[in-house]
Amino acid sequence: MEKTKKLQSRLEEKYKGEVSDQLRAEFDIKNKLGVPRILKVVVNSGIGEATKNKELIQTVLGDMAAICGQKPSVQKARVSVASFGVREGQPVGLRVTLRGRRMYDFLDKLISITLPRLRDFRGVSVKSFDGFGNYTLGLSEHSVFPEIDLAKVTKPFGFEITIVTSTNDRKRAFRLLELIGFPFEK
User: What is the model's pTM?
Assistant: First the structure.
């Protein structure tokens, strides 16, 4: 009986086939488990304006689920802030954590389709790394994703995408994303 091969994303094959070997050679890493890799991708969106409109929350939830391939969890306010008109327990955001195949599929779509569709796109900022090797990217409109029907968009919303890596070194994380194909600005 033949072993069934686990289906892999195009980006995952690229990482396992060439990127991990190149990173091991560049940084002189002896153990293959020490090679930097992407652990997860977290997609967040604030729905502050939608607190007054329940229909808008469902629209944003559906669009975000279509973009990520996974239903987002609703984040509720932890404290009440009168100046913002927010009460404790009120929904204020949506979050999706992607791992494995969905993570690689989302990143592949982001790199090859979505980012090039942005108006006046010259690359993503190199300065968006935190001190722990994670990269955060903000998009002001969700309508650039191919899953979104522009005719049905009533109110565009933005979100942030955080790519969490296994390294704490900014240079190694940058090189990992660069080899995967992230279009950094020159």
Answer: 0.84
